[in-house]
TrEMBL record, chain A:
Record-stated family: Belongs to the binding-protein-dependent transport system permease family.
Keyword Membrane part of the UniProt annotation: yes
Biological process (GO), any one: transmembrane transport
Localization terms from the record: Cell membrane
Protein name: Oligopeptide transporter subunit membrane component of ABC superfamily
Main subcellular location: membrane
Cited InterPro entries: BPD_transp_1_N (IPR045621), MetI-like (IPR000515), MetI-like_sf (IPR035906)
GO terms under cellular component: plasma membrane
Length: 309, 330
């Protein structure tokens, strides 16, 4: 088992390497560059800028020196935010997104699984219909609709929650409630539908019929025989969901004025801020492959049929 | 086998409501089971064998299923009117079941020990350790080598035949009065089938358990059962002692079934016999003999009315117009 974990972990390194290399060249080949939008800049200034950021060197040499830098944990200077390094920009915004995303995902998982279980056990009853209608709304209504509706009700009318902003301290918790609920909504809806569907499948399985034929109480049948298998698909969904949710959402950040990493990601791409884009890509892919790695390991503990050797 | 009747099914009707209409999966089935008896229920897929037996322990998925009528008397008490708690007392304890596919009937996420011990703890009131000892003993009886070690493994570490042995050990672990075996060997290959049947026969004989054996194989019932019920389209069309059925089958369907068994002791020329046609669709079946379109002895009356059950000497009886007095008068 531990040998498998080590081997599986080492195999992440080439994955990351390929992602970095591909992104590096793809970005460079995209039309435009970090300085192309500046107006009326004398040729000499552009030349100097290029020289300052080593962009006048051959592409492969740039790649090698960039790889050398990131091995030392240095993501380089931002091309657009002249006084900041990429490390600083991500370091300031990522923790905010991670905090918000983690709260949202915990909410989504707890509520989604609970709703999924109730809907599966009450299939085709009013509870099921109600919850699944909410889930369809959650999946289909965009965040920029849900967010403002919540703001309208809870901040503008009822005045119980702050409208927006990122505040530290006790008020900050209240300021997190609406963005977290908004962000969790589609994830909640997906988890609810996913767990309902897979629980229904298990409920109809032969081994659950065996469990009932043994005379077990319905409660024992559900807790011991149905839940484990029924919630496995949720576990595998949580890996990619977690990496997606903690790396920020520009919609949430715009609506609720949150200094998160999503906004920086989008702006860096629009600005062709090469180093910042690369920094974001590296951080996102690291989190993604790590989460998938964790899910794989957890899966092995939950499903005895998976053998590691 | 004694004369004491432990289970009496009376005019059992189980219907399923689907979009196209009402499926009368079981339509007026009656039979008796004596202590220690082995009863075979034979029929094609869809003839209502499994639904009959799931109805006995009230495991029909409802909806769409519904027990529309009849009684299931276990020691004289109707199981169809029992509370869920009362019926759970019986399930797995007094009446246990073995299912067709051993590959899917055991929970893949739980150790064999967990799955066996939970039943014994529940019904026998033993502690977990005592139950595990009992479970190991049952696995040993069921012919599982090194049961002390195997009991802590998961189902996927067992072969199909071994899993069915586990199911048998589990089914018999509370010393039930009745074991319902629903096609216990259909999913296994032929050499394993014989071993499993032998094991079931030996263990149930030793423990004095009555068996309801559901199968589509006449070969299986011939070797194991005292009595046979032949089912067609949700009803029992012929019943009798095993020797009676094989020596003098009365219903044309039974005759066809027996003729379609390949035999080693007879020189055969040409193709193996098979009953022509398909089993009927049991949705909104009219009041006729459902077998008439496939029957080579069909008469006019067969198409108009369901035949009465005609008794023969000893225990045999068949539902066919060939033997009914009314038909001769008509």
């Amino acid at each position: 088992m531990s040998r498998y974990i080590i081997r599986r972990f080492l195999s992440l390194i080439p994955t990351i390497f390929v992602i970095i290399t591909l992104s590096f060249f793809l970005i460079r080949f995209a039309p435009g560059g970090p300085f192309s939008s500046e107006k009326n800049v004398p040729e000499q200034v552009i030349q100097n800028l290029m020289k300052k950021y080593h962009m006048d060197e051959p592409l492969f040499k740039q790649y090698l020196s960039y790889m050398g830098d990131i091995l030392h944990g240095d993501l380089g200077p931002s091309f657009r935010y002249r006084d900041s390094t990429v490390n600083e920009l991500i370091g300031q915004s990522l923790p905010n997104s991670m905090l918000l995303g983690t709260i949202a995902l915990v909410l989504a998982t707890v509520a989604g699984i609970a709703v999924g279980i109730i809907s599966a056990l009450k299939q085709n009853h009013w509870q099921d219909y109600t919850f699944m209608s909410i889930a369809v709304v959650g999946i289909s209504v965009p965040l920029f609709v849900v967010g403002p509706i919540l703001q309208l009700v809870f901040a503008m009318r009822l005045h119980v929650l702050p409208l927006s902003g990122w505040i530290t301290g006790r008020e900050g918790i209240k300021a997190l409630i609406m963005p977290a609920i908004t962000l969790s909504f589609p994830y909640f809806a997906y988890i609810a539908r996913l767990s309902r569907a897979s629980l229904l499948e298990i409920l109809r399985s032969d081994y659950v019929r065996t469990a009932r034929a043994k005379g077990l109480a319905e409660r024992t049948v559900i807790t011991r025989h149905v839940l484990k298998g029924g919630l496995l698909p949720v576990v595998s969904y949580l890996g990619p969901a977690f990496s997606g949710i903690i790396t920020g959402s520009i919609v949430i950040e715009q609506v609720f004025a949150i200094p998160g990493v999503g906004r920086i990601f989008v702006q860096s791409a629009l600005n062709r801020d090469y180093t910042l884009i690369m920094g974001e890509v590296i951080v996102y892919s690291l989190i993604l492959v790590l989460m998938n790695f964790v899910v794989d390991i957890v899966y092995g503990f939950l499903d005895p049929r998976i053998a590691y050797n | 086998m004694s004369d004491e009747v432990i289970l009496q099914v009376k005019d059992l009707k189980t219907y399923f409501t689907v979009d196209e209409g009402v499926v009368k999966a079981v339509d007026g089935v009656s039979f008796e089971l004596h202590r220690g008896e082995t009863l075979g229920i034979v029929g094609e897929s869809g003839s209502g064998k499994s639904v009959t037996n799931l109805s006995i322990i009230n495991l029909i998925p409802m909806p769409p299923g519904k027990i529309a009528g009849g009684q299931v008397l276990f020691h004289g008490k109707d199981m169809l009117t029992m509370s869920p708690n009362e019926i759970r007392e019986i399930r797995g304890n007094k009446i246990s079941m073995i299912f067709q596919d051993p590959m899917t009937s055991l929970n893949p996420f739980l150790r064999i020990s967990t799955q066996m011990v939970e039943t014994i703890v529940l019904h026998q009131g033993l502690s977990k350790e005592e139950s595990k000892t009992k479970a190991i003993e049952m696995l040993k009886l069921a012919g599982i080598p090194a049961p002390e070690k195997r009991i802590d493994q998961y189902p996927h570490q067992f072969s199909g035949g071994m899993r069915q042995r586990v199911m048998i050990a589990m089914g018999l672990s509370c010393n039930p009065e009745i074991l319902i075996a629903d096609e216990p060997t259909s999913a296994l290959d032929v050499t394993i089938q014989a071993q499993i049947l032998e094991l079931m026969q030996e263990l149930t004989r030793r423990l004095g358990t009555a068996v309801i054996l559901i199968t589509h194989s006449l070969g299986v019932v011939a070797g194991m059962c005292n009595t046979i019920c032949v089912m067609y389209a949700g009803r029992i069309v012929e019943r009798g002692r095993t020797e009676e059925i094989f020596e003098s089958p009365r219903h044309p369907y039974t005759m066809g079934l027996i003729r379609s068994v390949p035999r080693l002791d007879q020189e055969t020329r040409g193709r193996l016999y098979s009953i022509p046609g398909q089993p009927p669709n049991v949705i909104d079946l009219p009041d006729c003999c459902p077998f008439y379109p496939r029957c080579d002895k069909v008469m006019d009356i067969c198409k108009k009315k369901y035949p009465p059950t005609v008794p023969f000497e000893k225990e045999q009886s068949a539902a066919c117009w060939l033997y009914a007095k009314e038909a001769q008068n008509a």
